[in-house]
Fold these 2 entries.
Entry 1:
Amino acid sequence: MATIRQILTIIDPSTRAQPCVNKAARLARELLEGTSRAAYLRDRMRQLALERALELVGEAARRVSAAFQSAHPEIDWRSIVGQRNVLAHEYGVIDQERLYRTGTESVPRLIAVLEKILARL
């Protein structure tokens, strides 16, 4: 499991945003490795860590240039940033079931796409 220090230092302003998105997404995936849905729903610390990791994914995605985003429409940048806004500003209750699905379904797909893109850069 990632340390709090790793979570808090994921976004380094001196680096390009695209690798930061990938790094944050990998952290989100790592937080759920070997964790069942039921175990996740009982583990408030893991929930908070996933919320923060997904917030960081969205923050890093928000920093990706409009040109890069336009060049890669296969990534739903708007939804990623939108989820970050919900998590950062706590618009109502956070749906942990949805976050678990995001972490186990959407995040691995995002990582696969990002790795292909980053390999070409």
Note: The chain is about 75% helix and 0% strand.
Entry 2:
Amino acid sequence: MNAIIEHVWTPDELAHQGSHGIDNVTAEELELLQQKNEAVLRRANARLEQRVRARTAELAQTNAALQAEIQAHKQVEHERTRLLVREQALRRELEVAVATLRTSEQRFRRLFDANIIGIVFSDFSGHEIEVNDAFLDLIGYTREDLQAGRVQWNMRTPPEYRHLDAHAEAELKARGVCTPFETEYLRKDGRRVPVLVGVARLEDTPEQCVGFALDLREHRRLEAQLRASLQEKEVLLKEMHHRVKNNLQVVASLLDMQADRIEDLSIRTMFENSQQRIRSIALIHEILYQATDVVAHVRAADYLSQLSQQLFEAYPSPSDRLILRVHAEPLWLAVPTAIPCGLIVTELVTNSFKHAFPNGLMGEIHITLRQDSPGTCNLIVGDTGVGLPEGLDVHATESLGWQLVCILTEQLRGTIALEGHGGTTVTITFPL
């Protein structure tokens, strides 16, 4: 109680009490004392709460800073772990790349030392850095010549081929590799050797490149031998076409001679028709014999024009009253296709001559060959004559000509379409 009083009462107030003592304090004084004491306690409590709040805020700030530091440390540890994992992955990739590079170098070294083709390392100034024995054998120089600097790639090409070197160098600098090209090398002894050359720039040393040179001498020798053999076969093939054509003409002439002795007009007509069929086949061999290059195909336009003209000359009447029109697209027909086509045209045009223009009737005969769709061809033979008899079935007729047309169409794996009004039009559709 005394301590409380000392905190509440001032020294003057205590002195004033003097001898009265604490027992002489009145109730009012005690109440006042209690009020002052409560005020002091409130102020002390407020100051304490303020200090607690300040300390709490300080602790919260310190804790936030500590949490941020911990988070930053975790982030650093996470980044460190990620970098360690990445480093290990890169190390493994590097090991694989080194192993792959070592394997590639070993393989290339085996190719280099195998001397299958000539291999040369050089720079763009023309100096040969390293070559294999196959390349030295190709150009006729020694390794001592190489070491002495007497071997330069830009000086071993003949003048007429150096523009190819310039083009290859420009392509090499632009793309890192040049398209392989054929050229010639000048050997040390002055002889020329044909080669196929390819060059690629080195990635690790862009000013250097590796070149490959393939010796074409054996290839050229075999090519010349093959060309001579082919020329010989071409001569033999032309001779064969010539002899076949001559033999067919002999057969046609024999039939003609025999027909002259036949008085029966129907039999003579049969002989004449056979002659025309033989001549249509002979014409193919004559075209092949006269061709500048040996091929197994006949130009359709030339063949049909010559064949139709040949038929017109064989039948001076009624051809003098008719107009012939031939239209053929620039197609090439294989011989197994051209022969049936020629025989079909012969039969149909001959039939038009004989039956389509009676009593001096004038008109037109047209022959068309066109490709309406890829792989499909239409052969159209027609006239402006009197047309076909009513009810004619070309597949059931006894006419040898129509029977031949049907057989030849089957041989072409084709189909027949007929129009017999206002003239006759026969369309043969077959695959090329």
Note: The chain has four domains: 2-106, 115-215, 219-295, 298-432.
